[in-house]
Specification:
4 domains, 16 strands, 8-stranded mixed sheet, alpha+beta, elongated
């Protein structure tokens, strides 16, 4: 950069600041014109001051070709100049599209997006918001917010989620899927909500709660509720369905649930409340007459048999060769594990129960625990056979096809427990526990919508990969030298990030 004194045709002189840019000389700024030597010297002094000002400005980073100036511009940047904006760009966009932006609580938005991008403890979330988003939020502020969140926002969150699900599914919900999972706490203390109970997570030593979830086809969220950790899961079905039906004006959809919710009381209650249902059947618990009928059938691969029961209820039994191989493999693996434990002397009377493959254990004499191989062999007769209990008028094939979609709710729990790390829960106050789950439920709705558009656009980006990509999308902030305006600019994204960004902004 240098000063040029240029004589004009009128005889006056123009004083300019010149910069060489890409091999050419460029007028950075014309300071002014003068005719007297005194005025020219004054303009030259102003030009030198302008050069000094420009040499210390960040703008040269984007406009001038000089290694020294670029190095100087970079030296002016600090951590506060660069922010991680990917989570807000991607997840915030979907948050708004679904309609959660109608919730006038900015902190709720921050907590949901933080749960999606960096699913950490609330204390770690405070650190994330400060370091990556420039948001100074005290942990006590978050806890006070959680204390009021569950009662005030849960109904609104559920209504928004339901409205979106209704829209995605074409305005009608004719089939719903219900299931429960356990969420454990990293503490040994029980209370009115957190109870010791049968843990599906294998954490019997930890108090827990039950999370009940209702979804539509493809796993789109409808509503949820939490229950005490020692409740019998079968007792949650009817109260939950009635609450959801009243809340969302559901017109008696077909209820699909796994065998864990199968009981005579539940079936009677479903029929008394005029619900149609498809339930996973426990065929080994059927009457001896029905079991003999099933075992007397010479099944071939894909064969389906329907057995009428009382009223409109029927038991549908299907056989699969592939399922038979899988069942046999699992039984053999379970047996091998028991045999190793027998040899090591680790099994005692307390291990004799009906959980998993422990059902093959029996007592011999007074203290000896051994394997009941006869029971093991008899179990092999049921390999490949699966049952479905229903009172619908759907065909056998339609019943089985609808039941297959139950994996979507299992996937919803898997997403919540892995991608969103909803467990373990470190809160102990019921309001905060409920708020934590409300945040995770909202985050699940966003992930589900992202999954939909990634599939629609035939993208190979997984949900987990999408979360990772957002963590490295940056924005730089700088100040213009003359206007003193603060400007922001997204840094260039890599190929995967650009694909994710384009998909989201194309669809939302």
């Amino acid at each position: 950069m240098f000063i040029r004194k240029k004589q004009n045709t009128s005889g006056s002189y123009s004083v300019q600041v010149i910069q060489k840019f890409r091999g050419k000389y460029k007028v950075v700024k014309t300071i002014g014109c003068a005719t007297t030597q005194h005025e020219i010297k004054r303009l030259e002094q102003l030009a030198r001051e302008e050069m000094d000002r420009l040499s210390g400005d960040q703008l040269k980073l984007f406009g001038y070709e000089s290694d020294e100036m670029i190095e100087q511009a970079f030296s002016l940047l600090d951590n506060s100049s660069i922010h991680t904006v990917g989570p807000e760009l991607i997840f915030g966009k979907i948050y708004d599209y679904i309609g959660f932006n109608s919730i006038k609580e900015e902190l709720f938005r921050h907590l949901v997006i933080a749960r999606l991008a960096f699913p950490l403890s609330k204390l770690k979330t405070v650190d994330y918001l400060r370091r990556y988003q420039g948001k100074e939020i005290e942990i006590d502020t978050i806890y006070r917010f959680l204390d009021k969140l569950s009662g005030e926002l849960k109904p609104e969150v559920e209504q928004i989620a339901f409205a979106h699900t209704l829209q995605v599914l074409g305005g009608k919900i004719s089939v719903v899927f219900y299931d429960l999972t356990t969420l454990y706490f990293e503490t040994g203390d029980e209370d009115d909500l957190r109870k010791m109970g049968f843990s599906k997570d294998g954490k019997q030593q930890c108090p827990q709660i039950y999370l009940g979830l209702l979804v539509g086809l493809e796993g789109y969220a409808i509503g949820y509720d939490i229950f005490e950790g020692n409740i019998y899961e079968g007792h949650t079905l009817i109260p939950f369905l009635e609450e959801m039906s009243h809340k969302f004006h559901l017109n008696k959809p077909v209820v699909i649930a796994d065998a864990g919710l199968l009981s005579k009381e539940n079936i009677k209650a479903l029929e008394a409340n005029e619900y149609e249902y498809i339930l996973g059947a426990r065929i080994k618990n059927e009457s001896e007459v029905i079991k003999e009928k099933i075992l007397a059938i010479e099944f071939t691969d894909g064969m389906t048999v329907s057995i009428k029961k009382s009223g409109n209820t029927r038991l549908i039994v299907n056989y699969s060769t592939a399922r038979a191989k899988k069942d046999a493999y699992n039984r053999k693996r379970g047996l091998s594990r028991l045999e190793k434990q027998i040899k090591s002397g680790k099994l005692t009377k307390s291990n004799i129960n009906n959980r998993g493959y422990n059902k093959y254990l029996k007592l011999s004499g007074e203290i000896s625990v051994e394997i009941d191989y006869e029971k093991y062999e008899n179990d092999g007769r049921w390999d490949g056979i699966k049952g479905y209990l229903t009172n619908t008028r759907l065909s056998d094939e339609e019943v089985m096809e609808n039941y297959k979609n139950l994996w979507q709710i299992e996937k919803a729990f898997r997403i919540s427990k892995t991608d969103l790390r909803i467990r373990p829960i470190y809160h102990r106050i019921p309001n905060r526990i409920e708020a934590h789950i409300c945040i995770a439920f909202t985050a699940y709705c966003i992930l589900k919508e992202l999954e939909r558009v990634l599939h629609k656009e035939k993208s190979t980006i997984s949900l987990k990969r999408a979360q990772e990509l957002t963590q490295n999308m940056y924005q730089i902030t700088y100040i213009l030298p003359e206007s003193k305006q603060t400007k922001s600019k997204l840094l260039k994204m890599d190929k995967e990030q650009a694909e994710l960004y384009q998909i989201v902004y194309k669809n939302f």
